[in-house]
Amino acid sequence: MNQKKNNKGNSSTYPKDSDWVNYTVDIHDGWADDVALVYPEGGWKPDDGELTNLKLETPDEHSAGDLPSNDSSGKTRSPYTENPSDIADTRTAAEIVRQSQTAVKKKTHYFRTFLIIWLGLLSIAIAFALGYFYDFLDAYETAYQTSLPYHTMDNVMQSFYDMDMDTVYKMQTALPVITEFETEESVKLYMTELLEEKTLSYEQTSSYTDDFPEYQILADGYVVATVSLRKSQTDHLDYDFPVWYVSSFTFYTQPLEHFHIEVPENYKVYVNGIELDQDYFVSRTSPTENTFVEPYQTLPDIKTYQGEGLYITPTVTAVNSFGTEYVVLPEETTGHYIIPYPSDCPDAEDMKAYAVEAVTMYANYVSNDTTDNALDPYFPSDSTLLPLIKANTSRLYYASHQTPEIQNVEIREFIAYNEDAYYCEVYLEQNMKLSSQRDPEIVPTDGHFYFVRIDGEWKISDIAY
Question: Which of 14, 202, 235, 458 is surrounded by the fewest CB atoms within 10 Å?
């Protein structure tokens, strides 16, 4: 480096700042020889040839006069410092580099520690955030799944699977109409019989929508009920998911059972323990057997009762005019309950015995084994039948025989119409030994006799031939 001495000729220090204008520096290291310098327009710029090369010298190349010197206070002054108060750095380049590296290492250590702590805190925050997010997703999914309407339908179906007809019955929007002959228990029994031993399931109906779900319940593929669900206006699940409730439940309880009862008018008849009255009376029919007891008696008419709207096949009971109660079964072909006239009564045995006596007397009269007036006590005094029997002259020409023996007596039918009229079919055989043959002759008689009570005594009102 070329330098000029200052005006005072002092070679121990560099020029003052004001004298640098008289110096030229030749900087020429070859890296920017071909770079064109551009100066601001209107500003200073060097004249041609004013720029010179500046040669930079290393510390070893400094002359003694160029090295730092001590001032009067003993402090070291830089030759480039005008102010003596500025303190020169006496560290070597290696020390500077080492100290710089140490400072950089300290800064790197602090930054690394800060980065590790920051990443740790960030990881914890992310873990908490993810945990909260997963909890949110789990709670959200749980609430969503719980809000699906089929869960409500599953609860409804559980009552069907458990055969809890009390709950199923109460779920119905409109309870079934029940006649006076049945109770809620009858309907529940009907529902149980409709469902038991069936495969139960449910499916969406054609009217199903997400806002208005509707299902139908099936038993072995047949629809037995329809359920409609609606969203509750007051209750809801988390995240505003809806709570569903049964807004409409229809169980197809169709009361298909009915009764048609034909019973003598002197009976009391009951359906499921309830006595029938005129509300169920349909018609009245006089029995054809009246022709056998008139004009002495009139047999009870046959009354017809009808009713419908029952869920269970009814139990029909009757109490006859003699106070005897019995259960009546429906006919297999028509399903009607036909209640006949009584086949028993308190005096039945005496009445049957009298019938056997009357038929025996009649058989012996026909065979000419009694006197002409033997039948008179058995008929009313004004009987029109007795004269006809007596007019039958065939008894006068009956084959000669010994007195017959009555055997094989059988009561084939007995009907007690009331306390004053009854019918009895008596079969008997006359074991008769004819004079003209060795072996006895068996003469059967099957008598269909009608009896009426006149003045407290039984009389033959007619005979059905």
Answer: 235
